[in-house]
């Protein structure tokens, strides 16, 4: 028999009839039971008879037998071993069938329990629905829902109208601010125009003032020359020169007063101009702040 069938690599006595797919090993039934006693999750399968044979020719098998007269006995022994293998396979299949039967029965019981539970839930839901429908609460619930929806609708419309009113107020305020800004810009342009005209007028006055100063200097030089001549010649005619000095001093004082008054007027005008410019700048800043806040 050992010349035809592959032996189990574990025990080297029985033929290898079982193959483990996970271990990738072939072994006999008894060795398979020992190895996979703890490794129950491994998948096993019966080896086909064609794969149990060793790849050897008949002449090689016969040459391996020393006594050719005992060939029939060897064949009988192989047949007996094959019957043993078949019996082992039958027992393995029976055990597998029992195992699968137990699993199927457990699944059927679980399925039956779940089915009964599902039927109970359906029945309870149907009873609840019947009780709820028979009590007349459905119409009341629908009316309550309608009332709630109507109230929500009214509230939403109210909020929308409030927002519209606020937007209209903001729009009106924005228009007022735009008109105010336009008016202020016109006023600023007019004031700038007046300031430019006033600056031109001041320049003209300054030019006239410079001319007057030049004329005064010329007159003073002439008076000095006249004074010198008078100091030389008038005492001969009995005329008092000190009187003329007093008159000249008075003229100088009057001229200085006029110049000081003109300077004070110019300073007052400049101060007024600065105050007006500061006020305009403050108004513009306030308008910009209001626009940013809105």
TrEMBL record:
One Pfam family here: ANCHR-like_BBOX
Keyword DNA-binding: no
Compositional bias annotation for Low complexity: 277-294
Assigned keywords, A-Z: Coiled coil, Metal-binding, Zinc, Zinc-finger
Domain called B box-type: residue spans: 3-47
Biased composition (Acidic residues): 260-269
Coiled coil segments of this chain: 65-166
Domain of life: Eukaryota
Alphabetical list of InterPro entries matching this protein: Znf_B-box (IPR000315)
Region (Disordered): 253-294
GO terms of molecular function: zinc ion binding
Protein's UniProt name: B box-type domain-containing protein
Highest classification ranks of the organism: Eukaryota, Sar, Alveolata, Ciliophora, Intramacronucleata
């Amino acid at each position: 028999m050992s010349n035809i069938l592959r032996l189990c690599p574990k025990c080297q006595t029985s033929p290898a009839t079982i193959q483990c797919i996970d271990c990738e090993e072939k072994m006999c039934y008894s060795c398979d039971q020992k190895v996979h006693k703890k490794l129950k999750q491994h998948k096993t399968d019966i080896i086909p008879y064609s794969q149990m044979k060793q790849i050897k020719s008949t002449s090689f098998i016969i040459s391996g037998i020393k006594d050719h007269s005992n060939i029939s006995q060897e064949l009988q022994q192989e047949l007996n071993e094959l019957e043993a293998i078949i019996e082992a396979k039958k027992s393995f299949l029976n055990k597998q069938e029992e195992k699968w039967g137990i699993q199927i029965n457990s699944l059927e019981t679980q399925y039956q329990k779940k089915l009964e539970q599902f039927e109970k839930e359906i029945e309870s839901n149907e009873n609840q629905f019947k009780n709820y429908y028979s009590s007349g609460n459905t119409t009341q619930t629908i009316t309550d829902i309608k009332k709630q929806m109507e109230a929500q609708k009214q509230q939403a419309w109210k909020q929308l109208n409030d927002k519209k009113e606020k937007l209209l107020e903001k729009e009106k305020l924005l228009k007022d601010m735009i008109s105010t800004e336009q008016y202020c810009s016109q006023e600023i342009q007019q004031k700038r125009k007046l300031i430019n005209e006033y600056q031109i007028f001041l320049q003209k006055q300054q030019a006239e003032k410079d001319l007057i100063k030049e004329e005064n200097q010329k007159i003073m030089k002439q008076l000095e020359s006249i004074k010198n001549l008078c100091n030389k010649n008038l005492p001969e005619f009995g005329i008092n020169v000190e009187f003329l000095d007093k008159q000249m001093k008075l003229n100088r004082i009057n001229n200085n007063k006029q110049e000081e008054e003109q300077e004070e007027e110019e300073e007052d005008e400049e101060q007024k101009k600065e105050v007006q410019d500061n006020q305009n700048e403050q108004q513009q800043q306030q308008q910009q702040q209001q626009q940013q806040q809105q």
